Predict the structure.
Amino acid sequence: MTDPRSRPVMRESYAPPAPMGGRESTNLGDILERVLDRGVVIAGDIRVNLLDIELLTIKLRLVIASVDTARELGIDWWEHDPWLSGRDRELKDENRRLRERLAAVEERLVEREAVEAGDHAPDEAAAQRRRGTERRRE
Amino acid sequence: MSEYGIYLYAVTPDVSGNATAGTTPDEATGTTAGAGPGTRPERAADVSRDTRRGTGPGPGGGTARLHGVLGGPVRPIRHAGLVAHVGEVPLDQFGEGPLRRLLEDLDWVEGVARAHHHVVEALAAAGPVAPVRLVTVYTGEDQIRDLLDRRRDDFADLLARVAGRHEWGVKAYVTRAAPPAPPAVPASGRGSASPGTAYLQRRKASLRSREDVWRAAAERAERLHAALGEIAVAGRRHRPQDPQLSGRSDVMVLNGAYLVDPDRDGEFAAALDAFRGEGMDVELTGPWAPYSFTSLDLGSDRGGGTR
């Protein structure tokens, strides 16, 4: 059952061992996912909230490498994870910023058109378009 | 309230006498062969007994006393045909409040995780083992005896299932080393595209080819998992690891674990080798204690069946 060669050499006590770069069979990630996520799960008398363990694994980045890659592979569990859905807000913010910039560009465009066309009431036209833009922005 | 808690590492069958679980693995006596009386049937129990006595190498040879979390000794609690392997831990670290704080400290977690793993591996070397999840702490031994009483059948089933088998970890990555040649954008067509358009076309093509590489790798990983599953007694797919933990920048497409009979190890390795190359790199780790095949949820009242 055992191959002594590949059995990890362990320290006697707990001392921070090799850095994460040290791979082979004692890769910290491999160990962590085993001791945290697998085996027999029993509630001891000292209550460690299950949630804590989940948060921990997220913090320790036992999560999928890249959102885009994962989505392409059809893995999207985190989309339903409130913890990780903060991305939503970023997207909304970016969206809002882009809309504002677009509105500003359109406005200037209108002004220039008005000038070039020699319109008699450029300010009026621009103002109208601007109002339209603002309404769209809502 | 005592200032120490009882940390539970793992459960093994008690093969020392009366209530034998009948799961003694054949090789339990083999690991320390050549050491005179090493053929006694209570081989697995020797590990525990040695640790209790705190002697040097026991009669079996290689079983030095076991140390666990914070360097503390590991000792057995025998009950109901099972052995719970435990150690005392200070509640100023393993109490509820301190734990909540310390679980955020990666160095602390790493130390505990490695010590825990060390104990599990040592026990696995001697016989079947059911590892218990990290930081399962009780206030007294009675609670642990009670647990063994209540769950003896669950533990016995589980231990019988993994007896004489070990776990291999298989990770497959998409290698960036072999990117498909960027498809030449057809220069013909509607005359010479503007530089901007050409750029966008190139970008689109490159994205598509990268997608293709990933999709192909995901399919290959699927087939690899199936092939290994045919040889293994059981297989599990776990969530792919983040590059920080895998230590590689390549994208992981398979993070599998397989419970294998040692006499099929060769076959297993051969099946694995057949999938190396062609844009996919495969990594084998282990043998591990059967962590992935001793999943038993006793935390709820769902009856605690194996999953």
The two ends of chain A are 67 Å apart (CA to CA).
